[in-house]
Structure formats: structure tokens, C-alpha cells
Amino acid sequence: MLSPVRRVLSLFAVIMVLALAPVAAQAEVKCEAAGFVKSAGQAYDRAASAGSASAFASAAARYSDLRAISLFALGKYRKDLPKPREAEFLQLARQFVGQTLKKHGSGFRGASLQITECKSSGGNVVVTTRTSGGTKVIFRLARSGGGYTVKDINMKGIWLAQQMRSTFVGTINRTGSIDGLFAYLGG
Predict the structure, then answer these.
(1) Are 30 and 115 in contact (CB under 8 A)?
(2) Which of 67, 109, 176, 187 might form a disulfide with 48, Cβ 3.0–4.6 angstroms?
(3) Domain layout of the chain by residue ranges
(4) How far apart, in whole angstroms, are the C-alpha atoms of residue 152 and residue 17?
(5) 23 - beta bridge partners?
(6) Would you put residue 51 in left (φ > 0), alpha (ψ -120 to 50) or beta?
């Protein structure tokens, strides 16, 4: 028969094993896109360390299809973008992405990513991660060629592509034309 002290210690050991089991299981999440997500996370970490909107924009350009995201952000006004101004718009949208990620991406600084969930559906993969600082970051990926591209990223509860669309469409609605969006973006 166990002494009361040993019984308490045994019970404590069982509780600790049960409490840590989900963490151990979480650490073992398998994900086909793990390498891509970790590389993107490292690029965003370097951008956060630099504290630069242009560093975030460069990381986003490397791992995302910024053209597709930017054109998506125009919503119903996509048809109103003059072809001769498309390159200018894409550059301004890239700057917007960099500024937005800088504002909401501070959780990446000095952080490593742990994949906590990975769901694949058709050509898309949604990867949920946590930084070492506890910030939840969700990557919505599309298969592209032999790898992946980021379709959207959620940091601090904000989906980048959706935020862009809300801002861009709202600005066009408020100003009455796509020229108002160019003015807002600094063009």
C-alpha cells in the first residue's frame, strides 16, 4: 500500500502526463506544407525584426501571389481598373500589404512557428500555427506548381486579403471612383 505522500505524488504524475499529452500531440501535427509555412514564417520573422514595411512587402511577394490578392481586393470594381494603371496599382497595393503586415505582424519578431492544425481540401491547405510568443497565425495556401502560395494570412484575427478588400472597396465607394483609391494609396 502506498503512503499518502506517494499516493499524492503518483496522482500528481498522472495529472502531469495527462495535462502534457495534448501539447505533445500538438507538436506532432503532420502537414504537407510544413516546410513552406516555416520558410514563410522565417521571412516574416526577419521582416518583423527589421521593423520595415518594405521587408514585409518583400516577404509577402516571395510567398504570395500579390497580383491575385490585389485584384481580388478590388471586388466589383476590378473591371474599373484601367489596364495602363495596373502596374501602378499593384505597386501601391504591395506597399499597402507591407504597411498592414508591419502593423499587425509584430508577433513574428524572434518567433518560431509551431504547426497546431493542418487541413487540406481540394487544392487548398489551411495551416494554423502559433509563434513562440503565443500569437496565432493562420495561412490559407493554394497548391501552385510543385509547391504552395499564400492566398491569405490571418494575424491577430485579421485576414489580410479581406482587410484589403474592405478598405479598397470602401474607399472607392466613399470617393466615388477608382481614382479615389489611387489617391488613398498614395498614387
Answers:
(1) no
(2) 109
(3) 1-30, 32-185
(4) 37
(5) none
(6) left
> Residue 130: how many CB atoms within 10 A of its CB?
18
Q: Which residues are bridge partners to 127 per DSSP?
A: 118, 139
- Residue 22 clears pLDDT 60, i.e. is over it: no
- State the angle between helix axes of 160-175 and 66-73 in degrees (0 to 180), rounded to the nearest 10: 40
Q: How far apart are CA 133 and CA 172, in angstroms?
A: 37
In Å, how far from its chain's centre is CA 153? Answer: 3
Each residue of 78-105: pLDDT tens digit? 999 999 999 999 999 999 999 988 887 7
Residue with cell 499524492: 8
The CATH code for residues 32-185 is 3.10.450.710
**185's grid cell:** 494609396
pLDDT higher than threshold 90 for residue 25:
no
Cβ contact 146:58 at 8 Å: no
pTM: 0.78
Q: How confident is the model at residue 21 (pLDDT cuts 50, 70, 90)?
A: very low
